[in-house]
Amino acid sequence: MSWINRRVRGFRLVDLVALGLLAGLILGVYLAKTIAGGERAKIAVVERQIVAEKARIRLLKAEVSHLEQPARIERLSETYLGMAPVSFKREAGPDALSQLAIHPLVPPAAPVEATPDPMVQATPEPPAPLATTTVLAEAGR
Question: Are 37 and 44 in contact (CB under 8 A)?
Fold first, then answer.
């Protein structure tokens, strides 16, 4: 009698081994599908984050294009810096550049001093000692 035809409690041994393999395959497929479902959920979260970041990038690009409008920059420079477009009398051609270098129309302005950074100038002061002694409460009272 071979192991293929051998019977255990009324079942052939081959049938029991095949049933065990089938149960193992079913369990393996179930676990693989469950793990894949979790990965799909993680991928969906990342894709939603990508869509949100792309929308934020579009919004920031729109804001940058608004802030870089020449008319807005001109208006701000006139309002806050007192700047104005150069008049046609102040324009110089290529021939006049050498004369302007020798004898400028307006003397150069004094250089503007940079505002010092308060964080660089501040010297760290040691903390003042406590005026009174601190009493720690005991845990048992």
Answer: no
